[in-house]
Amino acid sequence: MFAIIDIETCGGKFDARSSRIIDLCIVVHDGLSVVHKFSTLINPECPIGYFYTKLSGITNAMVAKAPKFHEVANRILELTSGRIFIAHNVGFDYGFIKAEFASLGYEYQRETLCTVKLSRKLIPGKPSYSLGKLCDSLGISNSARHRAEGDAVATAHLFNMLLKAKNDHPIYKNKGVNYLMARKLSAKP
After folding, report:
1. Which of 29, 36, 88, 146 does the annotation list as catalytic?
2. Active site includes 36?
């Protein structure tokens, strides 16, 4: 099982006073299809600057009455427990979530898989591997770009394509997910 995650933040690097998660979506995928989706705005307990409001469309007023991270932390644990944490540029999303948990005194650890790295290996030759451009080139629509739910759902569609590409690949087709996890398709076979 997989937990495909996207977040939006009000800063580029976690800082409990000024740069936190403001939008989160977790799409639970069983290896064949999406079986559950959880999406919420999050009150970051700090102001959202103009740049991040312009990027995501999320305003301070929108998150004012949203749950705080600690109020959804147990739900995040539940939905990601025993699942591989997948994101497009996983280091960013996983790093923020891990830092949010650390600010609560909890050590969050999950196996991770990055759809950027998988895409580069399984779908080579694309001019860009940014989520928006890659999805456009593959015909994956996303009417809610830079919103957690829109990007998580698009990443789930991309993940479906990557699973098919893996199954069609002459080297990786007979390899299971554990092989992908161990190798992350980054080394030569």
Report:
1. 146
2. no
